[in-house]
Amino acid sequence: MRYELLVGLRYTRAKRRHRFLGVNAVVSMVGIAVGVAVLIVVLSVVNGFQDEVRTRILGFASHVQLSGLDGPIGDWRALARAASQHPRVEAAAPFVDAPAMLFAGAAARGALIRGVEPQLEQRVAEFDRYMRAGSLAALKPGEYGVVLGADLARELGVGMGDRVSLVAPQRQEGDEDVSPTLGQLTVVGLFEAGFQEADALLAVVNIADAQALFRLGSAVSGVRLKLDDPFVARQTARELYALLPQDVFVTDWSRFHANFFRAVEVTKRLMFVILAMIVIVAAINVVSTLVVMVGGKQGDIAILRTMGASPREVMRIFVLHGLVLGVAGTLAGVALGAAIALNIDVIMPAIEHAFGIHFLSKEVYLIDALPSSLRAADVATISLTALLLSLAATIYPSWRAARTAPAEALRYE
Question: Percentage of the chain with pLDDT > 70?
């Protein structure tokens, strides 16, 4: 072991007469540890939030959606066959989307009526995963059953077997007058995705019933596609234009929610910059600790110089001492942050239960539980940032120590 490292390590253990320096060093390490831990936890929560919302959105939103530029699509089967020629397309299902008002007693709520073919829809969406009662298979053509989102059913005050009335504006082709479409639907299922846009707005019926209610004949609003990898949806959508007729509009899931995910990514970067200030404050504390230490070790520095130590070697002693503080604080922060991030699903409910509060409202944050996703890349970036800041904090005090004149330092010894 080079003597610079040996001396630097010895300086981390303060003697009785230098107890103040020892306290300062501990405070510096704790500051770095807290900053690193907070950064890891916050970025893990942002990652988890992004992943959770993306998963829930993809459970109901199609990876790629095909719709007609001029209105409903007549021969959807031919369009589905053409799209299925792409190697990444795994399944296709038709759908009908139309807005309507639902009534139950005195309650009235706006809803998006989605007509689906249950067997085909199961291949492109994950309804079964979120069903709380009934099933999508209960949507039989001609029976006018409906599967409601849990929040929508709660607002209407209905449950399994109850009936709801549907009113939707309808305009006949070539007719300027708008006449209402009326219908009676029976609740045959309830789902809860934990995703407000689906739970509070979506009402699913059989596609044949939707076509009858909205007078579409055999036409559909579009075709939903499932890909083998949803994260190549944008590239796949561009490639599908070459396989499909020119009057078909192709949209991927990222375009529907592009602003949301872009906002989350920007928030994550801003969080990193803002919370990195905690580590910067701790690094400044390292500077003050080393400045005080250099002042208190003038005699030691002078003796080392008279024994042949060069200014560069003296500088290395204090750089290594500061790095020991930085490394120790970083490792402690990584351990603490990782422990919290990996167990946040247990920690947060315990805090909520203890204080009788609820941190997340699904109406505001789309999800009602705090998720976490610890990523090695984030941990590495945070650790490297903390170590670089710790190294930068040692430069000035170490430079001052290297400039110590032995004769002046030993004059009063």
Answer: 85
Is the pLDDT at 234 greater than 70, yes or no?
yes
Cα-based angle 315, 316, 321 (whole degrees, multiple of 5):
105
Q: Which residue did the predictor score with more confidence, 18 or 314?
A: 314
Burial (CB < 10 A; 0-12, 13-18, 19+), residue 280, is middle
Phi first, then psi, for residue 248 (nearest 5°) are: -110, 130
CA-to-CA distance for 268 and 43, rounded, in angstroms? Answer: 7
3-class SS at 367? coil
Structure tokens at 399: 């430079």
Gap between the Cα atoms of 398 and 289, Å rounded: 11
Cβ contacts of 372-377, under 8 Å, gap ≥ 24: 372/41, 372/44, 372/45, 372/47, 372/48, 372/341, 372/342, 372/344, 372/345, 373/44, 373/47, 373/48, 373/50, 373/51, 374/40, 374/44, 374/47, 374/338, 374/341, 374/342, 375/43, 375/44, 375/47
Cα gap 31→141, rounded to integer Å = 65
